[in-house]
Fold:
Amino acid sequence: MRIVFAATPGFSVPCLQALLEHPDMDVVGVVSQPDRKSGRGMKLTPSPVKKAALAAAIDVITPESLRNNDEALAWLQMKNADFLVVVAFGMILPKQWLDAVSIAPINVHASLLPRWRGAAPIERALLAGDDETGVCIMHMEEGLDTGGIYACQTLAITNETTGSDLWFALAPMGAKLLVETLPKIAQRLTCVAQDEQGMTYAKKLQNNERIIDWGMDALAIDRVIRCFSPKPGARTLVDGKWLKIVAGQVLPNTSQKAQGEILAVKEGLDIVCGDGGVYRITELQPEGKKLMQAADYLRGSKLHAGCMLG
Structure:
């Protein structure tokens, strides 16, 4: 099977590696987003998928856009691919691209479709309090994640699951499911249409969603912190400076104090939430400093019960 692979972030690399290691699959080209400036020096840096493709000596293109790009389309057509496999590519694929392969354009999507179509399915499932998520292998069409489903695998979300946990679990899960499903599609496995009644949309995350609103209930605050842990991290203001919160727990006790007020500073930072519940911060990172336990931070801090966060 000849495959063109379209993807960008590190989440997609296990899928590429699984295709490269499979004896019956030949990755004949990779499409990724252009190099972006990153790091303190803001140097142009290739995407993780581009790095992996170059290391495997695969032909890579990085167009700014695929729409009305005759050169990129001609490149794809010259590959004579059976499959176009897309995993978190980050660009809209024109119909000409979807029609340019002989068997099917396939997407590996990190949710249980039709729940959480769109850009941030992993994070939205966690923020919404879903008790499960998973990976779907779907047929691509012009609509956003609207195509039929070939295969799915489910993963439980617990009260301790972080965004990082989901990332590291779903990436290899998707890779394994992909290489198991492609031969079945080549043998005429048919996809099953999605149920539109169960559809939700996973809109792109905004930076302000990382800022903790202490007016939310304690369980919702816990989900925000777990969603962004350990990177980029949820955050709150302390004396005008950002405090990144990496870990904590919802306590069983309640309080009548104001939301955002520090209730205690013994085993951690115990903060009153909007529902009267209490959240204990146990691991944090002060602005400009290293990650540390809350107890270590408190030994050098002037914070005390009655101080306000946010």
Q: What stands out?
A: The radius of gyration is 22 Å. The mean pLDDT is 96. Helices lie at 13-21, 48-55, 70-78, 95-98, 121-127, 163-186, 218-227, 294-299.
